[in-house]
Each structure stands twice: as structure tokens, then as C-alpha cells.
Amino acid sequence: MKLKLLALPCAAALMTACGPAGIDRINHVVVIYLENRSFDNIYGSFNGAEGLSAAATAPLQVDANGTAYATLPPTGDARFPTDLPNAPFDIGLYIPPDQPTADLVHRWYQEQQQIDGGKMDKFAAVSNAKALSMGYYQTSGLPLADLAKKYTLCDRFFHGAFGGSFLNHIYLISTAAPTFPGAPSAMKSTEDAYGNMVTDGAVTPAGYVVNTSFTVNTPHPSTTPVNQLIPNQTFDTIGDRLTAAKLDWAWYSGGWNDALAGAPDSRFQFHHQPFAYFANYADGTAAKAEHLKDEADFISAAKAGALPAVSFVKPIGANNEHPGYTDLITGENYTMGLIDDVRNGPNWKDTAIIVTYDENGGFWDHVGPPATDSWGPGTRVPALVIAPFAKQGFVDHTSYDTSAILALIEHRWGLDPLGTRDAAAADLSAAFQP
After folding, report:
1. Of the candidates 139, 136, 84, which has an alpha carbon nearest to the alpha carbon of residue 360?
2. How far is CA 317 from the centre of its chain?
3. What is the pLDDT of residues 193-208, one digit of tens each?
4. Which of 14, 49, 66, 331 could form a disulfide with 321 if both were Cys (CB 3.0 to 4.6 A apart)?
5. Closest CA to 190 of 177, 202, 176
6. 3-class secondary-structure state, position 11
7. 396 sits in which H/E element
8. Closest Cα partner for 87 from 40, 41, 131?
């Protein structure tokens, strides 16, 4: 009797014949870290995502006393009406996305006040730009939205730590906050008995650095008083884990070489260089020269098929989408170019690109973050997963925060977690084809 052969799905025992599945396909992770956009601010009208259409029943913005505004408090920018309704509004009706808006406050204590226990109702009240915090852009006009449609968009991705860029960059690579023992009093905040801010500062009463501060290493602003430079940190980072496993990696920053040479671009952001704050990458170390590089080196590596296992890419200020000193469209187009350098290069076949934002930049989002620990996570931000084996046209509703990126790297290469957050994090595997 002739036996009928059955087609069996690829199983772990047959992995060699069938090829790797899920995140095991990845040999290169590229993280492009952009700036200061909430999910609703730029993906609120993305089809299939939990966006502005789901926000109709969200609480109105309220003042410090908890009373709903009749109209949003004015932005202070004459380009906007002074009587905007107490609701999200389209910024593009007044300022096109290829022009900058004002910057918005985005700091440690203030974001916690804005989130207001998950009610998300004090963004306008706790903002220098007031009504602007409720603004959004039409998703359909944004270059990266086309990639979000083609690949995977995560619509429940929260930035890792409350506050601004400084802490979230450190958190991205470590899931921890830096400390400054003996910080000068001029840098310190004060709190009441309940932990509420009385006076603002860069360093909490417990000695944690939570707002923008600069490293003792090069580069840092020449005008920063020496006693206010953050001492070298010694806790572990993902770079340390990768190096110990003999895996190559780099942090590529736009304008890095010029800043090292003492001629920084006016929009080079010193506090966007997290590894520079650590003793293992201090001035004069071989590791600094080996792993902290200029963005031009990333572009060359992508085109040559020489990407390391893990690349962190930080565009210079002009190209990072940050309100105040740049616009949205310039950054999106620039990021498209970086992605195309990878997609057109020899490493594309086994590369996963993650495009996300360091934090929300003071912009409102209607989805309250999970209450995980005292550090965060903060407000929801966009995250795109782009890979030849990413799910196509998919919206991933899994709850993530920035530590998911670390979990992905750790799970792919069998690395120990850096802390409790990444140890428990979902690792973005839901965004990849099985």
C-alpha cells in the first residue's frame, strides 16, 4: 500500500531544514530613536489603530482644580485661535507639518501631573503651550505612515520613563535612572511628604537625575558648570551585555564627530547620547571609540552590508521631529532615507528596524499608561516594526513599553535582562511572522 505523505508545518525539530522562525530570523536590529510625539499626535487617524475615534468619551481637559475648561486655554501662538474647543484639534489647519510649532514642556514631575492617574486630563493645564498639547496631525499626510500600512504599527507602546529625552535615552539602554550623589542644591527639586513637586529640578531629593543634565565626558556644553556635570554611571547597559556576548553594536549619532571635535552643530543634542554618561564608555576608553559613532558610519555600514548585530540611530536635531527646533515632515523624510539605506542594502534580508519616539513631548494621548512602577511607563508613543518578515499591514495591540526593545535583543541573543522591567516585557515577537 502506498502511503500518503502529509505536509507538516515547520516545527522546532525541523528548524534547520525550514529556517528560523519569529525573532530568530533576526541577525541585525536597527533602532531609530525619534523625538517627542504621542501616538494620537501623529497616528490618531490610522486605520485599525486605537486612535482619535476611540477618544470621543475621553475626559475633557480640566484646570488645576479639576474643572473642565469651556474652551482650551490659549496656546500663546498667534497662529492659533484663542477659543479652541475642549477637544483634540488638527494642528495642520493652522500650521502645516513642514513648519515647526512651539516646544511643549516635557519633564519628570509634569508628565505625571498631566497623566493624572491615567485620566489623561491635565495636559493643557500643565503645559507652557496649553491648547497645543491637544493638537494632532492627519496621519495620511505623513511619509512614515506608508511604512506603517505596509508593515506593523504598535498602538499600545508607551515610552519607558516619565519625563523628557534625557531620562528616556538612559532608560532605553538600561531600564534604570542615573544618580548624582552630592548634586549641588541648585540642581535639586523639592517634594512634599507625598512625593509631589514643590520646586522643580534635574535631580530628585533621593539623588536620581530625571531631567536634562550633561555628562562629565566629552561632548557636553562648554557653558555647563563643572560641578553640575553628571559623574560616570556604573550600572549595566545593553551595550555591556552585547559586548560580553561578543556581539558587535554601536550608537550612531548625527553630528557626533563634529561634537567630539569641539564644533557641535547648533542642533546637536548632548543629552541624547546615553552611553556617554557611563564609565565603560568614558573619555579615553577603547569602547568609546569602538561603539559610539557618527550617523554617517551607520549609513556606510547599511549600504555595504556591514551592520552590527545592534544599531541605535539618533538623528541630529534638525532631523528628529522634535517640536520647537524642527518640523515633522523634515524628520519623516530623513528617516525614510535611513530606512531605505537598510532596505536597499545587503543586510535587509535578516534585519528588523524599529522606529519609535523617546517620549511624547508634552502632547496628549487618550490611552492611560499601565501603572507598572515608580518610573513609568509614560504616555503612549508610536512604534513601527519594519522587516521583510514583519507582519504585513498589521496593527499590534500588545501592551509594550520601551523595554520591549531590550527584551527583543535579550531574547534573540540569550542575554540576561538588565532589570525587572525588561525581564517581564513582551519582546515584540507578535509583530513578526511565525
Report:
1. 136
2. 14
3. 999 999 999 999 999 9
4. 331
5. 202
6. coil
7. strand 394-396
8. 131
